[in-house]
Amino acid sequence: MAQLYFYYSAMNAGKSTTLLQSAHNYEERGMQTLLYTPVIDNRAGKPTIHSRIGIASDAIAFGGDYDFFEAIRQRQQAGPVHCVLIDEAQFLTPVQVLQLTLVCDRLSIPVLCYGIRTDFQGEPFEGSKYLLAWADNLVEIKTICRSGKKATMNARLDEHGNQVTEGAQIDIGLHYEAMSRKEFRLDEVSPVARKHRG
């Protein structure tokens, strides 16, 4: 039975590298994969999944109105699709996560999603929230904070290396650092904590 996987981690843990390795494993065996990346990340000039270690692959760009179930169903009619892999899955909408469950349940295609759970304020991304709720398999890809502890949070840094605590949830191209919750100072950064302090 095809299943929905959510591989999650803090920033810089090798999610894209793991995705590209998984795609390579399928393709090496003559199996067809579909790779997706969000349209908002256009730094490469075309839809590309790029790893920090220097490997990359072309991908299909998706926006908020992209219908995964219908697009993959039509693609499957032209030939077998053995796996769907999605980079930056935190940018999926709740409806798109639902569509991906149907890709597994009705089209019998496994879906592997890779992303982060929370933003620079410790707030959950919508796509990640529903993947955590609905995925068949949750897999943590671990990385380390500068303190030596496991990193679970994603700090946004300004040009001077100072942690940014205000701004839009999505801001591609800024520098981010994976931190432990203690180093991140969740009690100071989180809007939940600020509301509680009143």
Structure, described:
With 198 residues, the protein is α/β, with parallel strands linked by helices. It has one domain: P-loop containing nucleotide triphosphate hydrolases (Rossmann fold). Helices cover 32% and strands 23% of the residues. The chain contains 7 helices and 11 strands. A 6-stranded parallel sheet has the order 5-2-6-7-1-8, sandwiched between helices. A 3-stranded antiparallel sheet has the order 10-9-11. Helix 2 runs parallel beside helix 3 and helix 3 (94-107) packs parallel to helix 4. The model has no long low-confidence stretch (mean pLDDT 91).
Short key terms for the protein model shown above:
six-stranded parallel sheet, alpha/beta, globular, Rossmann fold, three-stranded antiparallel sheet, single chain, 198 residues
- Structural class, from secondary structure content? alpha/beta
Provide the CATH top-level class: Alpha Beta
Overall residue-averaged pLDDT value: 91
Number of domains: 1
